Amino acid sequence: MIHPLDPEDALIIDQIRTATRAQKGARWTIEARQQYDALMEGVAPRDGVTSAPATVGGVPGMWVHPASRRTDEAILYLHGGWFHAGTAKAYRHLVGHIATRAGTSAFVPDYRLAPEYPFPAAVEDAQASYRGMDESGIRRIAITGDSAGGNLALVLASNVAAEAVGVVALSPVTDLTLSGATYETRAEADLYFTKQQIAELVHSYLRKADPNDPLASPLQGRLKELPPIRIHVGDDEVLLDDSRRYVERAVAAGVDARLDVWTGMPHGFPAIIGAIKASALALDAIGTFLTERLQS
Known about the structure:
The protein is of the alpha/beta class and 296 residues long. The protein is built from 9 helices and 9 strands. A 9-stranded mixed beta sheet has the order 1-9-8-7-6-4-5-3-2, with helices on both faces.
């Protein structure tokens, strides 16, 4: 589904483009973790949401609880940050909006980050978190994530297959060979990333691992018997083809998969809560899908 660009949203995205132009493609450093956390901490919080540190499956993280929630079900949310940044605490506000719309709690693991802990540490932590939730008696689990977390969510979905009730990925990184055509065709449109910058981050994450390993690139993973999947991505992202090709292959494998492409939207646009209409619309669609899957 293609979503048109609202004229008011276009003005705000143009302002963001101007403000971020000088930082586009900047080389990543460890110090950037604090800046990324501050960015995510700045997401407008949802009223009535509480959070608490916890350890699930041996992985530390944070539970996010909406004011009204159903029991015996939960969301596993895997945060973004190109495998190098992001924390459960910083993501609690964004996840709170999703959890509230879905009517259930969400666990956000602090999976191990590169370069200190390269592939497959993050994959192992995502798997351990899911197993810990399952073993704690949670009856129905939906898997969600954004960017690198979207990668981990889709990898995990391939590993647990029909066990999960549904998957939502926001601008997932599905192909670590970086072969998508939109690395070229969206090179100018993308607000934040360049292919060279991403290649350095991927190399730091994978080290000597094969980027075609299904645990690294879910595009190469097992797609049959996956639960229903919904992917949301901005049309101005170099990662657009990662989403398009994944959904095409999933549909060909018989999976109930759908791609929502948001015209004029940058990477991470659902987090621009309260400023753009596309954010609320995307989050509403995600909440509706998760509610349906968790209650089915």
